[in-house]
Amino acid sequence: MKNILITGGAGFIGCHVVKLFVQNYPDYQIINIDNLTYAGNLENLTAIENAPNYTFIKADICDQQKLKEIFETYQIQAVVHLAAESHVDRSITNPFEFANTNIMGTLTLLNQAKISWCSNFEDKLFYHISTDEVYGSLGDEGFFLEDTPYDPKSPYSAAKASSDHFVRAYHNTFGLPVVITNCSNNYGPNQFPEKLIPLFINNIKNSKALPVYGKGLNIRDWLYVEDHARAIDIVFHKGKIGDTYNIGGFNEWTNIDLIKVICKVMDVKLRRAEGTSEKLITYVTDRAGHDKRYAIDATKLKDELGWEPSLQFEEGIHKTIDWYLNNEEWMQRIVNGAYQEYYNTQYNR
Ligand code: NAD
Ligand code: DAU
């Protein structure tokens, strides 16, 4: 029996990780803590909300007293830490919130694990989920490896990089058993429609402009979210304490090529004339400090732990688009709220 604390489980990646752990490991008790920011959505978890091995607690990772109570009450033995502010554009307008959640929240959690586990670290694990953005930006050649020097360039990635450093510092200084993974761009069901793929699917559906930053030539490496959750499962169970593993899709796209694929698939699914969605493409002012290219080399994870992406992009993007088209109410409830204000500030400047 293992009592596992998952943070940020009501968010995009977190909900897939929570579902996988609850469904695949009935002997584990999964305690999901999330303070339900704009990005947290309990609707993402209806499939498992009544499972006997699942508990949800609304809690802030910066709240030390609450964390202490949770560690004691549930006798937490492992942490899978996903809670974070995650959107680069929002980090440009509000860097302090990112420093608070991503740095101070991670530090508060690390420190509570250290205190609650009383330096008795046998069979304990603090697993920190991070991003490839900590490595900075690539030119046309090369890949991010686990030993690529950190060079974060946005307030989001600077905060995530700092949190990674704190995790390693707790391992080095106090012997806390940690593992870190740095993953590339995820896509799939339940992603908040501020991120490129769900935003563009929703805008196409509503015949709204598709705001492409700069020339659309920035490159991202896309991974289906359930493949990321599966990698997290493998690293959680087999990862070497103190190690870092990169996770990626071996699947690079320029934004504009990716957007054109989405446009084509949407035309077919919405039974619109070919070329209808592409006409919505609108080039807008570039993101400040926009990283040119991310590309992960996930060979270590493949060679050492046997993980590989299972889904081809073609299938993944179809599944993703179908999910958003079949879950219109999920989308509607999000875009009806404070989202409007965010959207107007971000895109109607
Ligand atoms: P998300 O924004 O969809 O979800 C974040 C979740 O954290 C939300 O449910 C939110 O309510 C919760 N949260 C935020 N602040 C909190 C706080 N103070 N206390 C408790 N809960 C809080 O993010 P995501 O895309 O699912 O990303 C999850 C993690 O994975 C993040 O750490 C992110 O840096 C990392 N990551 C994301 C991607 C990606 O492509 N989305 C890629 C690599 C790594
Ligand atoms: O690489 C991993 C990271 O991927 C994660 O750590 C982040 O949490 C996640 O948000 C994501 O960051 P990106 O900035 O790469 O994702 P986003 O979906 O915001 O943007 C993808 C690309 O599309 C990027 O080059 C910016 C561009 N873009 C984005 C939006 C929202 C546009 O051209 N127009 C847009 O409206």
TrEMBL record:
Its cofactor is NAD(+). Its EC number is 4.2.1.46. It comes from the Bacteria. Keywords: Lyase, NAD. One of its GO terms (molecular function) is dTDP-glucose 4,6-dehydratase activity. InterPro entries: dTDP_Gluc_deHydtase (IPR005888), NAD(P)-bd_dom (IPR016040), NAD(P)-bd_dom_sf (IPR036291). The keyword RNA-binding does not apply. The keyword Secreted does not apply. Pfam families: GDP_Man_Dehyd. Residues 5-320 form the NAD(P)-binding domain. It catalyses: dTDP-alpha-D-glucose = dTDP-4-dehydro-6-deoxy-alpha-D-glucose + H2O. NCBIfam families: dTDP_gluc_dehyt. Belongs to the NAD(P)-dependent epimerase/dehydratase family. dTDP-glucose dehydratase subfamily. This is dTDP-glucose 4,6-dehydratase. The gene is rfbB.
